Inverse folding.
């Protein structure tokens, strides 16, 4: 199960706040957050298996994230959902135009979020939604499914927005994501990375913490795209 909370124009000081956990098999080959080869304006992790990404942001303020959808049929022949994130941050299409161009049937079930800092944000799953200003939580369940994990994370982000410094806010979110119901740990499967993205005053703060088997911290990376 993955967790993404997006605060879109919910704070005057921070036009975008993202707090996200990626949960995955520990054995799945992954590159942690880095500047992409051939696209140094992009920062994000990469799935080594297919080359897509689960969360990435550009220096220009384009950002996208994806989760799978619990209960959707396994479709080994389908395109990797990580291509949606990769293709959006490498394109110059508007979030709405890009989402409208997606052939949903080409992929196994997903939640896809894409937008531009201070601009339009869209969410595509069972239908396409354009988000108003607010704080939104996405997991792996169908839209509008109640989840203690998601509701707790949304509530924490709402409260944490009161922190005045972008880096301090990012550190708070990373700490939150690494504990309690937000965090998943096990021998085979668990939270592989926690990411906080904060936009403030024309700057983007990107912090990622990665974890190994059993939830042991592997590394913490800070970057400004």
């Amino acid at each position: 199960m993955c967790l993404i909370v997006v605060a879109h124009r919910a704070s005057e000081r921070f036009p975008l706040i993202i707090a996200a956990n990626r949960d995955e098999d520990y054995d799945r080959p992954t590159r942690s957050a880095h500047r992409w080869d051939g696209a140094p304006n992009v920062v994000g992790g990469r799935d080594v298996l297919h080359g897509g990404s689960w969360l990435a942001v550009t220096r220009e303020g384009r950002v996208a994230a994806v989760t799978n959808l619990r209960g959707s049929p396994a479709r080994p022949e389908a395109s990797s959902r990580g291509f949606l994130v990769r293709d959006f941050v490498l394109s110059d299409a508007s979030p709405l135009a890009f989402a409208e161009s997606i052939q949903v049937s080409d992929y196994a079930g997903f939640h896809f979020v894409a937008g531009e800092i201070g601009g339009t944000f869209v969410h595509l799953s069972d239908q396409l939604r354009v988000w108003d200003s607010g704080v939104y939580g996405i997991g792996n369940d169908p839209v509008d499914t109640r989840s203690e994990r998601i509701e707790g994370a949304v509530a924490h982000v709402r409260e944490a927005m009161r922190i005045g410094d972008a880096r301090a806010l990012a550190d708070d979110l990373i700490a939150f994501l690494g504990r309690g119901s937000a965090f998943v740990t096990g021998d085979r499967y668990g939270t592989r990375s926690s990411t906080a993205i904060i936009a403030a005053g024309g700057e983007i703060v990107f912090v990622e913490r990665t974890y190994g088997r059993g939830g042991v911290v592997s590394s913490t990376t800070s970057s400004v795209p």
Notes: The chain has a mean pLDDT of 94. The radius of gyration is 16 Å. The longest strand covers residues 189-200. Helices lie at 82-90, 95-101, 148-160, 166-177.
